[in-house]
Amino acid sequence: MDASTQFRDAQLSTLRDYAAGRLGTRQAIESLGVHDYADLVIALAQQDLNLAKPAATPKHDAHLARARAILQPLLRHVD
User: Fold this and answer.
1) Which among 5, 20, 33, 34 could disulfide-bond with 39, CB atoms 3.0 to 4.6 Å apart, if both were Cys?
2) Domain ranges of the chain
3) Is residue 19 over pLDDT 70?
């Protein structure tokens, strides 16, 4: 396997990790060396990959927990 094939494999791996939510947007953009989010979306489409799920980070988990804490009591009292 030559260097360019290894690089393409690394890019595909990064795109798959991003699409699965294992890598954040900024990390994916920097790892791929693309210009911005639009380039990232184009790269995903070219590989037939879906747009990413939110990355499973402690910050994201904290946001979900806070949203649940706010919304669940409100939903219980809906008539």
Assistant:
1) 34
2) 3-76
3) yes
